[in-house]
Design goal:
mainly alpha; two-stranded antiparallel ribbon; 8 strands; about 10% strand
Length: about 325
């Protein structure tokens, strides 16, 4: 038992060292990501795009995808995820901010736009075992940032260099979506040019982009298309179920515990696929217009993180008893 405790502590120490290394290297990962995405974009627009049919249609569409890709990446990297100790945020007035479908703000406390027809319940609060701050439910402590984040999903050191939470999770998903769309276009439309760049058809290379750069960017595009698509589908699956990445792990434990008691676990945040997606992207009659999915505007989430929409009649998850909720400090105990 003593040996197992020492092994556990050793692994926890190695995990903390890894967190510090990835945290320190985060800005370099972001710089590398910008270079690779820019290289792929230049390769597409200098080699592939000029050969596309219907340029009056294909060029604006490709530019729209590229603008969304870069803007959502910029926003997910620069918008703080929502730390507990921050003051409340408000809707901005700049040209990058979209106007809500219903300009008049609802009266429900803690809810920004989409409160009509929803069961809004004030979040339960608890004290973080790591930093001691009082936080609402769905907030979790990030080991790398050493802060509690509202609706914490995960910390992304590679590419984003910060947490993904309440205020930037939408941009994270849309960045992945447009990265998949853009890399898919590059993969399928750029295949004939990749064959030419490899010299397999003995066609002279007449493009300004060097052949080696094009081949590298094309290969990266194929890999990213598959890898990011898997990540995107996994995250969308969680959104459709009304849970974050952290909550998905917790809910698996809750389901097993409830099943062992002969009960059924029900996620109180799960309002159905359509409503879950509408609340996440905050679109609809009481949110923002649908065009905010296709133009890189900033919007507010439907809540400030201290109130949540729940299934009617449920103020907590069904099948989870008081005191059984998992906390950030559970994995630190031996």
């Amino acid at each position: 038992m003593i040996c197992a405790r020492h092994v556990f502590r050793c692994f926890k120490w190695m995990e903390r060292v890894g967190d510090r290394i990835t945290g320190a290297a985060g800005p370099y990962f972001v710089g590398l990501a910008v270079i690779l995405i820019s290289l792929g974009t230049l390769s597409f627009f200098t080699v592939v795009q000029p050969s596309l049919a219907l340029p009056w249609l294909s060029t604006p569409l490709c530019l729209l995808i590229a603008v969304n890709l870069f803007m959502h990446y910029y926003l997910v990297c620069t918008i703080p995820p929502g730390f507990i100790d921050e003051p409340p945020r408000h809707h901005g007035t700049g040209f990058l901010w979209a106007s809500p479908s219903t300009p008049k703000r609802p009266s429900t406390p803690g809810v920004h736009w989409s409160s009509t027809g929803l069961e809004i319940v004030n979040a339960n609060v608890s004290r973080c075992k790591q930093c001691g701050v009082v936080r609402p439910e769905r907030a979790h402590h990030c080991r790398i940032c050493n802060k509690c984040v509202l609706k914490y999903d995960h910390h992304c050191p590679v590419g984003v260099n910060q947490c993904v939470g309440l205020h930037n999770e939408r941009h994270f998903i849309l960045f992945m979506a447009y990265l998949v769309i853009g890399s898919s276009f590059f993969t399928f439309l750029g295949y004939p040019h990749a064959i030419d760049a490899l010299g397999l058809r003995f066609v002279p290379w007449v493009h300004t982009m060097p052949q080696l750069c094009f081949i590298i960017s094309y290969m990266l595009s194929v890999v990213m298309c598959v890898a990011v698509l898997i990540m995107l589908l996994w995250h969308l699956w969680g959104i459709a179920r009304g849970e974050t990445s952290v909550e998905a792990q917790d809910h698996a434990v809750y389901r097993k515990t409830a099943k062992d008691r002969g009960e059924t676990f029900i996620n109180s945040y799960d309002l159905g696929v359509r409503k879950n997606l509408a609340l996440f992207f905050n679109i609809g009659p009481n949110g923002y217009p649908l065009y905010t999915l296709f133009l890189p505007f900033r919007i507010m989430p439907y809540t400030d993180g201290h109130s949540w929409a729940r299934r009617r009649g449920l103020e907590r998850h069904l099948g989870v008893r008081e005191g059984e909720e998992l906390t950030d400090g559970d994995d630190e105990e031996t």
